[in-house]
Amino acid sequence: MLEVSHLSKRFSDKYAVKNVSFQVNQGDSFGLLGPNGAGKSTTISMVTGLLSPDEGEVTMHGKTMRKHPKFLKQRIGLVPQTIALYDTLTARENLEFWGTVYGITGSKLKDNVNWCLRVAGLEDNTKQLVKKYSGGMQRRLNIAVGMIHRPEVLIMDEPTVGIDPQSRNHILQTVKDLNKQGITVIYTSHYMEEVQFLCERLAIMDHGQVIAYGSLNDVRQLAGTLATITIEAQGDLDSILKELQQDLSLKNLQNRDGALVLQSTNAAAAVSKVVLAMSQHGLQPANINVEEPNLEAAFLHLTGRQLRDGGEGAV
Ligand SMILES: Nc1ncnc2c1ncn2[C@@H]1O[C@H](COP(=O)(O)OP(=O)(O)O)[C@@H](O)[C@H]1O
Ligand SMILES: [Mg+2]
C-alpha cells in the first residue's frame, strides 16, 4: 500500500538518510525504531512530502509523491515530533483550523472534529485553551490534529517523548485502538518497548540506514537468542522430559522445581508441543510464561551498541 524505495537525503555532504526502503501494508502497525540521529524524522519528512528526497521514491496505491503529492497527502496524517498547536485556541478551534486547511467544511468538519476529540480522550476539555493543557493532553491533541482529515495512514514521530507514564500509556493504547479500527500506523520511536508493544512489522535504522527489517519475531531473533519458556505443572515431569528431548526444536530442557523450562526459536510451537505431551501423560499445565528475545538484544547484536544509549545527541 505504501512503499518507500531507496530514499536518500544529504544535508551538505552528509547523508541523513541513505538508501532506505520498506513497505507498509494496509492495516499494518509498522515501527521505525532507532536511536536519536538515526534518520527517522528525515525519513518521515520525505514520506509525508515535507522534504523532497535526493534519491528514491515514495509510492502509495501505485502513485508517487513526486507526481501526485495531493493524492498522497490526503491519505497520510502526520503527528510531528514537536508539538504544532495554537496555544491561544481551544482544542476544538485547533482541530477546526487544521480541518479547513485540508479543505474540510460543514457537517463533515464537525463530525471529524468530534471523532478526533473522542479518540484523543479530550471531549471534556474542548473549551479550555491549549496553553492550560498538561503536556500529555497537548500530545493527545497533537495526535488528534494529525487525524483531522481521517487519513488511511497515520505517521507518528516519537509521540511519547517527554511525557508522564500515564499519558504515555494512554497514547500507546490509543494507537493500538486506532490500528484495530483499521487505520494503518507508522510509529517512530527510540523506545524498543513501545515498538514491541505496538508493531507487528518494523525497520531498525542506524546512521541513516535500515539495518534490520521484517516481522517483530524475525527481527527479534536476529541476535540468535531463543525464547525461554517456563511451564509449571502438577505431576511427574521427568516422565515426559525424555520424550520431549527427542524433539530438536526444544532446547535446553530441564525440570526445575515443578516447572519445565526450555528454549526455542518458535515459542508458540514449542508451547503447544509441550502442552500436548503433558496432556497425553495426564499432566495439567498450570502456568505458562514465555520470555521472547527482545529488540534491544537484536540492536546490540547488529551494532555493538545499546539502543537505549542512543546515538548522537541522545537524551
Ligand atoms: N535540517 C537539517 N540540516 C542538517 N542536518 C540535519 C537536518 N535534519 C537532520 N539532520 C541530521 O540528520 C541526521 C538524522 O536526523 P533525524 O532524521 O532527525 O534523526 P532521528 O529522527 O532518528 O533522531 C542527524 O545527524 C541530524 O543531525
Ligand atoms: Mg526524530
UniProtKB/TrEMBL annotation:
Q: GO molecular function of the protein, one example?
A: ATP binding
Decide whether keyword DNA-binding is in the record.
no
A Pfam match is ABC_tran
- Positions of the ABC transporter domain: 2-232
Which PROSITE patterns does the UniProt record give?
ABC_TRANSPORTER_1, ABC_TRANSPORTER_2
Q: Give the protein name, as stated in the record.
A: ABC transporter ATP-binding protein
Q: Which InterPro entries match?
A: AAA+_ATPase, ABC_transporter-like_ATP-bd, ABC_transporter-like_CS, P-loop_NTPase
Record's keyword annotation contains Nucleotide-binding: yes
SUPFAM superfamilies hit by this protein = P-loop containing nucleoside triphosphate hydrolases
Looking up SMART domains in the UniProt record yields:
AAA
Q: Could you tell me the keywords of this UniProt record? A: ATP-binding, Nucleotide-binding
